[in-house]
Amino acid sequence: xAGNDLIPDRSxxxxxxxxxxxxxxxxxxxxxxxSLSLPDADRHSRSGLPSSFKIGHxxxxxxxxxxxxxxxxxxxxxFSIPRITVPLLRACLEFDSEKLYTLDGNKPDxxxxxxxxxxxxxxxxxxxxxxxxxxxHHVAGAxxxxxxxxxxxxxxxxxxxxxxxSIDLETAAMESNCVIAALRSYEQWDALPQAxxxxxxxxxxxxxxxxxxxxxxxxxxxxDRCLRGIRVLELSRVIAAPVAGRTLAAHGADVLWxxxxxxxDLPDIDRDLARGKRTAQLDLTTKExxxxxxxxxxxxxxxxxxxxxxxLSAKGFSPxxxxxxxxxxxxxxxxxxxxxGPWGGNRGFDSIVQTGSGMNxxxxxxxxxxxAGRPMPCQALDHxxxxxxxxxxxxxxxxxxxxGGSYEVDVSLAGTMKYLRSLGQFPGKTGFDCPTTGxxxxxxxxxxRQSEFGELKALKHSAAxxxxxxxxxxxxxxxxxxxxxxx
Length: 487
Fold this sequence. Notes:
Rossmann fold, 7-stranded mixed beta sheet, 3-stranded mixed beta sheet, alpha/beta, 17 helices
């Protein structure tokens, strides 16, 4: 059973049930769900993702929802809904897309940071922690808390960790510029005050201001994709929010990815997630940078932000301020723990939420080989949250077209975690009796194109839309290659 007082029991849901459940929650026309085709749905053995969690179910349902809502918006232009097909295996592969591309034949390298100091979790005085090491300043912050220099050895690192209790180290990280999670069980997570604030439905869409219905005109020759004519500002890094932007781009949106010149390039992740996007840089610590972003927002349909809750609001870009500047805007927020509760303003990432919420402990218990914690085989929370955010955005575009107004969309990694947990887990070790997908089978779903970084071979989008051609026109390029302007 998946349920308790905090976690609804959806363990008997099929993939189609999950899609219908979230679709109905969003208040969308029920008859359109019948346009979906889900090959191999609920056949875990075809997912290629060995896990106790129903990741294949989550992958197929979230990608299908994002494609179906994009087509729903397009129906306001052509008054019909096309057939949507999302095969299970292709959806599962796309949940691992950042690991499956090659650049000039070379695979991405994720061995940096603190990974050379040990496994995914590190031993403390009373348990284990996970230290996020995706950004150099997070690594530097963790070493600073431990009182270690950047040149610290593995032995020094492990020795100093043993001087800390897990919760104390997690708390110290929350008070500084780094991200650390204590490894918890479900019971320990459920006892936290923050657990009470995590919604049971992973997508929240609400109207900010009323207005007249608006359907942006389709550009000439723009009938090949559902979101042609939609302008998207994306302010994000790492995986979850960039997946949302990449998904909107696959369906034809003009996505302008705004990054900070004060943050480093993350080449191994950015090369995959930048597909379909123009890229410009603005320094929001300057008046000029903020003025330019506001100018762009006034002509945008969608404003995606994936930074810590409150960080952009502090610079004058709260959803209400954006709606005052642009009464037709859709503000989409991606966060770790939502924007409410004692952890509402905290930084967080997929691996951190997995560690702190009990998922890794439960995965290890199901695997049954005595590990303290075991990560899922892919960044499932990141990818699912990205597709959930794209779904919420497209639902808001449909509502804006039919009802008018500006909207806010909220998705959190913890909300996705809660939904995945509610689907239940495969009993014992049975979920791990699932063969991984071989390179030869993956090859069928890759496309090879020339980028500014070299020959890029990467996954095609897994959703097929009858009569349309989802995909990416723009290939990855160096950050800041484009001017901060609409085309």
